[in-house]
Write a structure and sequence with these properties.
285 residues; mainly alpha; 73% helix; 0% strand
Length: 285
């Protein structure tokens, strides 16, 4: 009876070098990550060493002192709540405008759709200071200066172009047969949009809403231009005025910066799977 012997395959030079390249890529990735995260680490490190100048901060805190955080919460807590209210309002306005606009551009075959989408992208390239100065005179006439709604409206304009482009690319991928089936069953356009299109576009809605929140949360230009009093002061404006020209307590300043970063970080962690699906979903039809 003939026996079959298996000769072990001799690994090639490329196979022998593959683990070495993998380790090299991992080390390079970790080095880049450390460089990118260093400002965040230094911010937290400084926040834990209050009552010290920036040049006196140790590389590693020897003892944890949370007095900077208690000071920041006492002085900037109201501004954090203002930022939260303005950012949530901006998200609602942004999605209420961009979702129907994206649906119309994706499914109704409107004339000049490509030109409209291109124009929407162009608006993203306009400097914020130009828009803020243009809005100021209109806001004075409309009585929207120093108002929550005025700031929500202005901040929502930062996210609307991105949200329209993102959601349109996602809604284009919705099969036309699904929409026609809903219309055959008696659903009107509005009901089809609310009960069929929006649930199927959940990932893009969450992604657009998250980026709109981040745009509004980090806005400084509109907050500085469209507010002449302290009635509506977001955290970005609060930190700017908090620093001053001769600040000595950098621990409290950095503690306020850390607190302002927490809501955005939590949202990014919670919505990361929806972000990946929302951004890549529109690229596959």
């Amino acid at each position: 009876m003939a026996t079959i012997t298996h000769t072990p395959a001799v690994p090639s030079q490329a196979d022998r070098n593959r683990p070495r390249r993998r380790w090299g890529s991992m080390i390079a990735g970790l080095a880049i990550l450390c460089v990118m995260l260093f400002p965040l680490y230094w911010m937290i490190n400084t926040a834990l060493q209050p009552e010290s100048g920036l040049l006196e901060v140790d590389a590693i805190p020897h003892s944890l002192d949370l007095s900077g955080f208690s000071s920041a919460i006492g002085e900037q807590g109201t501004n954090l709540l203002t930022s939260l209210a303005v950012a949530l309002g901006a998200v609602v306005i942004c999605l209420a405008i961009s979702a129907p606009a994206a649906y119309a551009l994706a499914q109704f075959k409107l004339p000049g759709t490509k030109l409209i989408v291109f124009g929407t992208l162009i608006t993203q390239m306009v400097p914020g200071i130009v828009i803020a100065n243009a809005l100021y005179s209109a806001y004075v006439d409309l009585g929207l200066v120093n108002s929550y709604f005025g700031l929500m409206l202005a901040d929502s304009s930062l996210g609307i172009p991105f949200a329209i482009v993102l959601m349109r690319s996602f809604m284009v991928a919705i099969p036309r047969e699904v929409i026609e089936a809903a219309e055959v069953d008696g659903a009107g356009r509005f009901r089809t949009f609310v009960q069929v299109v929006l649930p199927m576009s959940r990932n893009s809605l969450i992604t657009a809403g998250l980026f709109s929140f981040l745009y509004a949360w980090s806005d400084f230009m509109f907050a500085l231009t469209l507010n002449t009093t302290d009635d509506v002061k977001p955290i970005t404006l609060g930190i700017y005025q908090y620093i001053g020209a001769h600040v000595g307590d950098w621990g409290s300043v950095m503690a306020a910066a850390v607190l302002s970063a927490i809501p955005a970080a939590i949202l990014l962690v919670l919505a990361q799977k929806y972000i990946a699906a929302g951004i890549s979903g529109g690229s596959v039809k």
